[in-house]
């Protein structure tokens, strides 16, 4: 039997097999930012049910800022991945679909009982449908370049921040009592419609790729001024930003239609130009051969 099973001594110099493939740090960092934003969103729910609405809103605002950072950090570090994209979508659903709706329900919509809860469900489902459509449109290879300047429907962070307008007003001293609950319900359902609609909303993704030199210093000053105002007058600034954003949607629609008509006219002219060039090539006599 000893001949059948000879003793075996492993080679100490043999490299050890890795059970898992190592992941670069540049891929991990954006996902950590996304998870921090998710923790803020979940913490905001706890703060809201403890009646601490101001820190809950601040947590959502910081989560929205981190949501705008993680993707840019991933592209800057060249650490984009399919896992990161799916994690970002799930975090957006919690932070911007579930959390703001629950905060608003705890703050005001609970006065309407089941009807208020239905509005919460509609808003959350509209958010997840909007995120699913966004992920599908990213894989569309035939999407024109100019359409990247627009979102189809209201983006998720904007939907979350604008939905909390009743809380901003209450923090400013406006009386938001049970009588305002039906208005808040209609407002929340209107935002849900904007998210699932095909209304184009300007994204501004291409802004800042190249900034003229004469605008650099004014942009620095404006950025510092906005940060100072947001830090010292947060609810006034958030209210103003919400109103300005909602007021800019009709201008986004007009600009989108203008670019769409220009693109359609250019596409209609292209086949005609190609046929004219082909016919002129056929009608030209061939040069005599040497």
* CATH level-1 class: Mainly Alpha
When the domains are counted, the total is 1
Total number of helices: 9
Q: CATH superfamily name?
A: CDP-alcohol phosphotransferase transmembrane (TM) domain
Return the structural class.
Answer: mainly alpha
- Major sheet: 2 strands, antiparallel
- Give the strand order, joined by hyphens, for the main sheet: 1-2
Q: What is the distance, rounded to the nearest whole angstrom, between the alpha carbons of the first and last residues?
A: 91 Å
Mean pLDDT: 84
Q: List how many beta strands DSSP finds.
A: 2
The name of the CATH architecture is Up-down Bundle
Order of helices and strands: HHHHEHHHEHH
Unreliable runs: none
Subcellular location: Endomembrane system
GO molecular function: CDP-diacylglycerol-serine O-phosphatidyltransferase activity
InterPro entries: CDP-alcohol_PTase-I (IPR050324), CDP-diaglyc--ser_O-PTrfase (IPR004533), CDP-OH_P_trans (IPR000462), CDP-OH_P_trans_C (IPR012616), CDP-OH_PTrfase_TM_dom (IPR043130), CDP_ALCOHOL_P_TRANSF_CS (IPR048254)
Main location: membrane
Structure overview:
It contains 9 helices and 2 strands; from the N terminus they run H-H-H-H-E-H-H-H-E-H-H. With 290 residues, the protein is mostly helical. The protein has one domain (25-264): CDP-alcohol phosphotransferase transmembrane (TM) domain (Four Helix Bundle (Hemerythrin (Met), subunit A)). The chain has a two-stranded antiparallel ribbon with strand order 1-2. The relative contact order is 0.08. The mean pLDDT is 84. Residues 267-284 have a biased composition (Low complexity).
């Amino acid at each position: 039997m000893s001949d059948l099973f000879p003793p075996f001594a492993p080679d100490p110099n043999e490299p050890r097999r890795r059970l898992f493939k190592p992941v670069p740090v540049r891929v991990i960092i954006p996902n950590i930012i996304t998870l921090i934003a998710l923790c803020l969103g979940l913490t905001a729910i706890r703060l809201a049910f403890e009646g601490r609405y101001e820190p809950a809103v601040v947590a959502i605002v910081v989560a929205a800022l981190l949501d705008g950072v993680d993707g840019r950090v991933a592209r800057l570090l060249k650490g984009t991945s399919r896992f990161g994209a799916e994690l970002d979508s799930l975090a957006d659903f919690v932070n911007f679909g579930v959390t703001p709706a629950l905060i608003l329900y705890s703050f005001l919509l609970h006065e309407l009982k089941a009807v208020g809860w239905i509005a919460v469900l509609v808003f959350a489902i509209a958010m997840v449908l909007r995120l699913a459509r966004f992920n599908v449109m990213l894989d569309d290879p035939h999407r024109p370049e100019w359409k990247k300047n627009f979102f189809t429907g209201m983006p998720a962070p904007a939907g979350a921040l604008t939905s909390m307008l009743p809380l901003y007003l209450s923090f400013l001293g406006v009386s938001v009592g049970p009588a305002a609950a039906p208005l808040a319900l209609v407002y929340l359902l209107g935002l849900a419609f904007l998210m699932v609609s095909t209304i184009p909303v300007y994204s501004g993704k291409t802004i800042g790729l190249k900034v003229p030199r004469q605008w650099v210093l004014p942009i620095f000053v404006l950025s510092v001024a906005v940060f100072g105002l947001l830090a010292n007058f947060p609810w006034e600034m958030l209210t103003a930003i919400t109103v300005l954003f909602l007021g800019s949607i009709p201008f986004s629609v007009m600009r989108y239609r203008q670019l769409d008509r220009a693109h359609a006219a250019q596409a209609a002219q292209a086949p005609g130009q190609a046929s004219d060039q082909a016919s002129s090539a056929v009608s030209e006599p061939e040069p005599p051969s040497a």
